[in-house]
Specification:
The protein has 531 residues and is α+β, with helices and mostly antiparallel strands. Helices cover 26% and strands 23% of the residues.
């Protein structure tokens, strides 16, 4: 997307009226398969968590119901030079505790997002420095020209500086299993349309409408209650009984059941999330394998053998009930920069796989553990089990370690030194642009700007690493598209990861509510209406 000098201002910034409680306001109850482990908006870089936080916290700009970029806490966001953006904060905005929003709050939030416990180093790292002009105005300086900076900041939420200092939560905390010492893990104070009234991780989170919200929204919800329900059958039963107004994901095999049941319906569509497999390509010896003294995944022949052993069409048919879209790229068709001509998956060929393994010195295969979440993606554990079964046919014995997402992410992410040998992960670029898959997932792992932060296996190609910042700063869309294609072609040839498919959006919804189903699988309470 090419940004002109004045990106978002004028008429779009006019909707500043306070939102009085809607007439006939109602309670809305929903369930998701995973937990909300923390309320810290700078903690975990994970779609469900970020999306949930977006109901309480807000960025400078945001998505509307059509995924258009519109003003949020920035009244205007103007590019005044190749590396400079002038931001004017929206006047009259209040935090939930009554404090006024100022430029200092964003500057503080940016610095907080760069602290050790933050997963938001990637978006925060796009900014070199911030120069405060006055109480409501500041200049963002980027290291290089960055025409997509507004999109990069869509998930960088603004916290109240005074509140954070008061409660000693000036540094972010990424929960691995219960670091409750950080006040922001258990409490929230944003500018969003809903306030947290109670939060018990793994049990229930209750929100109420913030009557001082700065704009009108379609929702008539006065109280919203979220309950994590890990079991598919229990989640569907809660929807059918009327205990829940929305449950997701719904197993694809239950779609017909919802169609046949009175008062509910399935809500499905293509999701912009790619599910893929990755390998540890950094360590000289794998942590979880019977091969000692070397790392099989450093050999491209082994990675190609794995790619040829995975039958994505069988996964689509047997595991996903025909609802997935097999992938050859790390991004979905909805993402800017998607190259359809490169989207073919490796041919399923067990003979080729066995030959590649033998050529690499593993004629009898080897053993390895696969890390897998069991409550994050649609049929995630079943996908891992299917992949393990397929790899067994070529002699590779895979032990599937499936855990809840809190334990899974706590194990495999940077805070735990990427403790994995082989893993399944899913990714939706929050910017809806390929660069936000390339930089965090495919570029070499460095501390600089958070580059490669979610490249769990440490895949590294110097040409790709050099192209990543060039793609970020290039404003010529043809040149930019060609660079993105070059990255994807190199990555495919080297089997940096194995893309499997785009999973379906799979929600079950009561007839008494209307919701907006976004392609990034985010539930935005601003657009929930209870009849």
């Amino acid at each position: 997307m090419r940004w002109k000098s004045t990106v978002i201002a004028g008429a779009l910034a006019a909707a500043t009226a306070l939102a009085a409680p809607s007439v006939g306001a109602k309670e809305f109850k929903w369930a998701f398969q995973g937990n909300l482990n923390s309320l810290d908006p700078h903690g975990l870089f994970e779609t469900f968590t970020i999306g949930f936080h977006g109901n309480m916290y807000e960025p400078l700009i945001a998505y509307d119901d059509k995924m258009n970029v519109v003003p949020a806490l920035a009244e205007s966001f103007t590019q005044t030079g190749p590396n400079t953006w002038r931001v004017k904060m929206r006047p009259g905005v209040k935090f939930h505790n009554g404090n006024d929003l100022t430029a200092d709050d964003f500057i503080f939030s940016w610095k907080r997002a760069l602290t050790e416990g933050s997963d938001m180093k990637v978006p925060a790292g796009k900014i070199k420095e911030i120069k405060k002009i006055d109480e409501m105005t500041f200049d963002i300086i980027t290291p290089n020209p960055n025409p997509i900076l507004p999109r990069d900041l869509l998930i960088l939420y603004v916290m109240d500086k005074e509140w954070s200092i008061e409660h000693k939560t000036t540094a972010a905390t990424n929960l691995k299993g219960g670091e409750e010492g950080n006040y922001a893990n258990l409490n929230a104070n944003g500018t969003g349309p809903f306030m947290v009234t109670s939060h018990a991780a793994g049990v229930k989170t209750t929100l109420k409408r913030f009557d001082g919200y700065w704009k009108n929204i379609p929702s008539n919800v006065s109280k919203a209650t979220f309950t994590p329900v890990s079991q598919d059958a229990t989640r569907v039963a809660a929807l059918l009984s009327g205990e829940m107004d929305l449950s997701y994901p719904v197993p694809v095999q239950d779609w017909q059941r919802l169609k046949d049941a009175p008062g509910v319906q399935p809500l499905a569509g293509p999701e912009a999330r790619t599910i893929f497999l990755g390998f540890d390509q950094v360590r000289d010896e794998l942590l979880y394998s019977n091969i000692k003294g070397k790392n099989p995944f450093k050999d491209v022949r082994v990675r190609k053998a794995f790619a040829h052993a995975i039958n994505v069409e069988a996964i689509k048919k047997k595991v996903m009930r025909g609802s997935s879209v097999p992938a050859g790229l790390m991004v979905a068709p909805q993402i800017g920069g998607f190259a359809s001509e490169l989207n073919a998956h490796w041919k399923y060929d067990t003979a080729m796989s066995k030959k590649l393994l033998a050529d690499a010195g593993y004629p009898d295969g080897f053993e390895v553990t696969m890390d897998c979440p069991n409550d994050r993606y649609v049929n995630d554990e079943k996908i891992c089990q299917a992949a393990a079964s397929m790899l067994a046919r070529v002699g590779v014995k895979v032990k599937v370690l499936a855990q809840t997402k809190s334990k899974y992410f706590g194990k495999v992410l940077s805070q735990n030194n990427y403790d994995t040998s082989f893993y399944l992960l899913g990714w939706t670029p929050g910017t809806m642009d390929s660069h936000q898959a390339i930089e965090p997932l495919i570029a070499c792992r460095t501390k600089e700007k958070g580059r490669g932060l979610f490249n769990l296996g440490g895949y590294c190609n110097e040409r790709i690493h050099a192209l990543a910042p060039m793609i970020e700063s290039e404003s010529d869309q043809t040149k930019r598209a060609n660079m993105i294609k070059e990255v994807f072609k190199i990555h495919q040839d080297e089997v940096g990861h194995i893309p499997l498919h785009q999973q379906p959006l799979s929600w079950g919804v009561s007839d008494r509510v209307t919701v907006n189903q976004r392609p990034d699988n985010v539930l935005d309470l601003r657009y929930v209406v209870v009849k």
